[in-house]
Write a structure and sequence with these properties.
Layout: H1 4-10, H2 29-49, H3 64-69
Length: 70
Amino acid sequence: MVGLEALFEANRKEVDKDVRMPFDSWMDITTVKAYTEVYKQLLRYIFRSKNIEPEKRPGYELTERQQMAI
C-alpha cells in the first residue's frame, strides 16, 4: 500500500519544482504537553459523566470497545 504523501508527489503537476514534505509530524515538547493535558481533561469528563443519571448525561455514547478500554 502506498501512502497518501507518495501519491500526492506522484500526481503533482509542477515537475520542475523540488519535492517538498507535505506534513512534518515533529512536535515541540510544549505542544505535546498541551495536547496531553487536553486529552486528560477529556478523559476526566468522560469518567465524571458516567455517574450522571441517564436523562442528564451528555449526548454521546461510548462503543463497547471504548467502555472496555476505560
